[in-house]
Design brief:
Length: 260
């Protein structure tokens, strides 16, 4: 009987906790928001969850407002607005997009990137992930690159199969150019064109032609390394790399005098 009573108590307790969770939402909000604000925010989060929208970022937005001591109506408005942007990003990028891409897409929209640019990313071949591309867009817009300049550059690079490493390097290069005095639009355009050409050369090299660039293990391209591609060196020099067919090399140094 005691064992049965213990199981009944645990069952009742579980039901009570479930009811508490449904009534008050995420426990992190319970201790940080007043009841009215908490209920409104929890309702927005629940609706977003049903719509397939990431919810952790909505909780973070509410907690951020609480940390800044914003009033309840401002917190609710901020969470609702963020949820709307997440829905737009998910619709543009596709329902199969992971949370990281939806969040990055929402940030891009807030930075002025147009929905049609996100839809172009969705047209990339199956399996391509573009959270990094969206982050690079937003970052460079904040560094002064016009939206109408950077969005097509990044989207075209993604469609050309640019890797995350290449996009990260592009961001660093553009930022360095801007810091050096190059206009932001010019820096982004020139760097984008350079990377597009680099990708094209690498693709040509991978197709079997002896090119001047080799793919690295990280997916970027670099200048041909003679130690790793002796055939390319031979093609450039016009000789057999192995030395076959060539006269043997003579001894180095001065010849020793013959003894009498």
């Amino acid at each position: 009987m005691r064992a049965l009573s213990r199981h009944v108590a645990l069952f009742v307790g579980a039901i009570a906790l479930t009811g508490f969770a449904r009534q008050f939402g995420d426990p992190r909000l319970t201790t940080r928001l007043d009841s009215r604000t908490r209920d409104a925010v929890s309702s927005i989060i629940e609706t977003a969850k049903n719509d397939g929208v990431p919810t952790e970022t909505l909780i973070d937005r509410a907690l951020e407002g609480a940390s800044k001591r914003a009033n309840g109506s401002a917190i609710v408005a901020a969470v609702k607005s963020w949820a709307d942007d997440l829905r737009k990003a998910r619709q543009a990028l596709g329902p199969a997009s992971p949370d990281a891409e939806i969040v990055a897409g929402a940030h891009a929209l807030r930075n002025g990137i147009k929905v049609k640019e996100l839809e172009r990313l969705r047209a990339a071949r199956s399996g391509v992930r573009y959270a990094m591309a969206l982050d690079v867009m937003s970052y460079l817009v904040n560094r002064g690159v016009p939206v109408d300049t950077i969005a097509p550059v990044i989207v075209n690079l993604v469609l050309a199969s640019a890797t995350d490493d290449q996009l990260a390097t592009l961001r660093q290069d553009v930022e360095r150019d801007i810091s050096g005095g190059t206009p932001a639009s010019t820096a982004a355009s020139l760097r984008g064109q350079g990377l597009a050409q680099q990708i094209a050369v690498a693709r040509s090299s991978n197709s079997g032609a002896a090119g001047s660039a080799l793919p690295s293990v990280r997916g970027t391209t670099r200048s041909a390394d003679p130690a790793l591609n002796p055939q390319a060196v031979g093609a450039v020099q016009g000789n057999n790399v192995s030395g076959a067919g060539e006269a043997p090399a003579g001894p180095r140094g001065k010849p020793k005098p013959k003894r009498p």
